[in-house]
Amino acid sequence: MYPLKKILIFIFIISFGKIQAQISKKEKDILLSDIPSQNNIQKIKSYDKLFKYYTANYSDSAEYYADKMLSTAQKSNKPKFTALSYFNLGTFYFKDSQFLKAEEYFQKAVKIQEEQELYKDLALTYKNLARVYYYNNNLSKSTDYTMKSLKIYEKINDRQGITDTYINLGTLHSASGNYKKALQYYFSVLKNKDSISTKTKLKLYHNIGSQYKRLNKADSALLYYKKSLAISSKANLRNETATSYFDIGDIYGYYKNKKDSALFYLNKALNILGKNNLNLQKAIYAAVGKTYFENKEYKKSIAPLKKSLEIAEKLQNLNGKEIANYFLYQAYKKMGKTGKSLFHMEKYIQAKDSVKYNEAEIKLENLQSKYENEKNKLKIEKLEQKQKSDKKIQNLLILAIILLVLVFALIIRSFLLSRKKNILKQELLKTEKEKINQDLQFKTKELTSQALMMLQKNKLLDEILQNVSEIKTEDKETKQKLIQLKRKLRYTMNSEKDWELFRKYFEQINKNFFTRLTQINDKITASELKLAALIKLRFNIKESASLLNISAGSIKTSRYNLRKKLNLERNDNLYDFLNKI
């Protein structure tokens, strides 16, 4: 049975400060007209209010006013406001999903706040850095900065800050799969439930229910989901109430196999859900369809699954399309409707392939951004070292002019400093080389992972092709569809998309490899170039045959032709030759 992928929604309570529009549009217009006549401190505060106004209204003008605030604060030599300006810029870039730039500006704010001992501001910046690392899947760093913020809140006895941070620590442990540890943090907060807000209780109960669900403790999960439901219903929070109904229905359907109860709660969720929450609608319809499917009511499962697919296509949600098409394919198969089953199986394979390809593309983009960021940091470090070194030499020259009588001593000192500079230079070169080697190893692993993913994909498609070939039918239309599907499967197995992505990774590590091969012999074919890359990566004949979708015998023939075109003697090792290029 295909496992339905659950959408894990973690409540990560990290405040960006009061981002809501604290001023009205009319007050904003008055503020803009007053700025020219204000002094620098007043301007800084006005720019901060305008930043918050435009951030709440999702406008790019927020970045402009954060920049204006920063330049004014720097001119006025006000470290506290300079740090707040950096914090605002970090906030803007985080909301714009530019996580590397967000990290850069939050770190600049941290440096000033640590120097000025602005503890409350510093704790908030630590929490937002934790959020940046959380969304970048760096749970270790996210936990480190969350613990830093907790220490400050404990030091200044900020009870709300401590509560929020405990919830964040529970979220982090949940994300890393340590659900029992997550529960410990959530229950620690509940010990003082009389002092926490209703909204925080709602989030806590939901999170606790989710941890019990992941621990397969259905009864405990139901208990806390129902507590969350009681609070959201009383407060008339429609989306939160719908979410609780959905979670309860999911427990009854997936964990307790109680169809009627599951459908009761899932339908209640649909009835009260706001029209704009399409993601939750998609998940609920998928759960309804799956509930019917699990109870072998295949015909009834079709309509909700189609509705889920319709929403997924509207949202361009690949995971949603993958899940809905999978269950539609299985349902039609059980009903004996081969044509429709094959149609949705093909759509399922396309969606699954697109998900993997998109993930690989995003991974490559993140890798390139990270590499450029590290390279820029190294350049800055080298420039700073050069500036320090130049300053020392300048001081020595001034000292030599003033103290001519100590020429001999200065010569010795200059020699020692020069030697120290050379040692420092060698150490910097060594560090740079180590970083380059680490990056090369990382990219090599990514390249091998991409090749293995292609290998696994071809194996999966080959298995599906064999299964399709085993389907026997006398219906001419179905036979024709089977022939078309087999042709498409073979075409997908030979898809150049994967090889394009593979080539991107490969050429980052092995510059001009393919160019040099064609310079040796311009008659080398594209297939032989692919084979040369696989040999360089130490893939054996069987693995290369699977990746290129040809027989092992054809691989041997291609290797022989490649050796011949490269003018290799009988005793020459093909791998050694390619490894030197």
What attributes does this structure have?
581 residues; mainly alpha; Serine Threonine Protein Phosphatase 5, Tetratricopeptide repeat; Arc Repressor Mutant, subunit A
- What's the end-to-end separation, in Å? 48 Å
Question: How many strand elements?
Answer: 0
| Poorly predicted ranges | 1-21
Instruction: Please identify, by name, the CATH architecture of the domain at 20-117.
Output: Alpha Horseshoe
The CATH superfamily name of the domain at 20-117 is Tetratricopeptide repeat domain
Describe this structure in words.
- This protein has 581 residues and is mainly α.
- It is 80% helix and 0% strand.
- Among the domains are: 20-117, Serine Threonine Protein Phosphatase 5, Tetratricopeptide repeat; 510-581, Arc Repressor Mutant, subunit A (Orthogonal Bundle), CATH 1.10.10.10.
- The chain contains 25 helices and no strands.
- Residues 1-21 have low confidence and may be disordered.
Write the layout of secondary structure elements.
Layout: H1 25-34, H2 40-56, H3 61-75, H4 79-95, H5 99-116, H6 119-135, H7 139-156, H8 159-175, H9 179-190, H10 198-214, H11 218-234, H12 238-255, H13 259-272, H14 278-294, H15 298-315, H16 318-334, H17 338-402, H18 407-469, H19 476-493, H20 496-509, H21 513-520, H22 526-536, H23 541-548, H24 552-565, H25 574-579
Helix pairs in contact: 2-3, 2-4, 3-4, 4-5, 4-6, 5-6, 6-7, 7-8, 8-9, 9-10, 10-11, 11-12, 12-13, 12-14, 13-14, 14-15, 14-16, 15-16, 16-17, 17-18, 17-19, 17-20, 18-19, 18-20, 22-24, 23-24
